[in-house]
């Protein structure tokens, strides 16, 4: 009845998956620091285009390590990324993940100002100096607001993970972040999403040591 | 400073996004019932391959409508899909979304039996007769266990959303579901994921009427 199914122990499935995807990537080489991030995003999406789309600034991984080791926290614009990030691993260093999307004050003020809740969430995050890593997996409006806050000197993130997905101002918002001196990990083009955002954060955490 | 950025009111962003993606899809035609599902998945991923990958059985959408209108609930194997599904819209009909992945009894029994938590979650769901829609966005092991439970007559879902992603038994698990008489929505091949799963559920809910 289950012919064609390969029997694999639960603990071995992830390793086997990475073996298969490495085989498909073939001879392609990535830097030692970037490879786990690129591979985890492909593991999460089965989309090999990400091998070409993920753009990591030189200092990004090191800066993220330092921020997390220092107990820094993260903010994200999506509850799905919040659900997907390995919060237990992060908590070992003292940090946590914030998502203000459901906060009543955010909803009310966003409506009053006729801006997106996601962009207001960036303002709210900028008031918490322990938030060192900004993870935008959904809304380009959040990434644009973050660009402004960085440009104005209001915040100076250790890392911007800028992987909004979609069709309105998505490409433009990522291009803006690349113009800043801030460490960044982005996905070129329209692709990205909350699953990609969570995969990038988890790849960084796993590079620092797994449970 | 924000040159290149199109200023769009928050409430208009989604509509504009769907306009752009419809333009990219061009003359391509889908059935009236399938189009909102396919377009929402592309909206969520910016991956136009899904126009070819999404496979919806004839009775799937109607069966889902009936189950939801009847107050039926959903189960999912991923906390990210749980986070992404519009639970407020679902609650209007009386249903809810279950995810047993973090349940302590599931973790203990899965370890004892050396099976994945996701497959055990399907067994747990099969004991709740109000769960009518099974949403698998991550683990092929869950989809395989569900196949067995359906084959054995233990459960008779109104809809199986089978969109696990990855490299180990992913394609095979989807092929198995297609052999059953159960209404299904799957993604052919390796692609899928929790974001795709949530997008499919939300598309169905929005077809039934939005807040």
Automatic annotation (TrEMBL), chains A, B:
- InterPro entries recorded: Cbl_synth_CobH/CbiC (IPR003722), CobH/CbiC_sf (IPR036588)
The yes or no answer to whether the keyword Chaperone is present is no
Which residues are in the Cobalamin biosynthesis precorrin-8X methylmutase CobH/CbiC domain? 12-207
Tell me the organism.
Lutispora thermophila DSM 19022
Query: Which family would the database say this protein is a member of?
Result: Belongs to the CobH/CbiC family.
Q: Report the protein name in the record.
A: Precorrin-8X methylmutase
Stored SUPFAM superfamilies? Precorrin-8X methylmutase CbiC/CobH (SSF63965)
Alphabetically sorted, this entry's keywords are: Cobalamin biosynthesis, Isomerase
What pathway is it annotated to? Answer: Cofactor biosynthesis; adenosylcobalamin biosynthesis
User: Lineage, please?
Assistant: Bacteria, Bacillati, Bacillota, Clostridia, Lutisporales
Q: Which GO terms describe its molecular function?
A: precorrin-8X methylmutase activity
List the GO biological process terms: cobalamin biosynthetic process
């Amino acid at each position: 009845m289950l012919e064609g199914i390969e029997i694999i122990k639960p603990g071995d499935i992830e390793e086997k998956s990475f073996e298969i995807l490495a085989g498909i990537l073939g001879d392609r080489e990535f830097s030692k620091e970037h490879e786990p991030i690129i591979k985890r995003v492909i593991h999460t999406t089965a989309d090999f285009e990400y091998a070409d789309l993920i753009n990591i600034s030189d200092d990004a991984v090191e800066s993220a390590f330092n921020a997390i080791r220092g107990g820094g926290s993260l903010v994200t614009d999506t509850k799905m990324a919040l659900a997907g990030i390995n919060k237990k691993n992060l908590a070992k260093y003292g940090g946590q993940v914030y998502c203000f999307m459901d906060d009543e004050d955010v909803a009310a003020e966003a409506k009053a100002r006729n801006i997106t809740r996601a962009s207001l969430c960036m303002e709210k995050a900028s008031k918490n100096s322990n938030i060192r890593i900004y993870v935008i997996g959904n809304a380009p409006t959040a990434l644009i607001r973050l660009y402004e806050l960085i440009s104005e000197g209001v915040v100076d993130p250790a890392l911007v993970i800028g992987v909004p997905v979609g069709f309105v101002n998505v490409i433009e918002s990522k291009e803006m972040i690349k113009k800043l001196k801030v460490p960044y990990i982005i996905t070129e083009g329209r692709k990205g999403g909350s699953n990609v955002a969570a995969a990038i954060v988890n790849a960084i955490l796993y590079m620092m040591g797994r449970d």
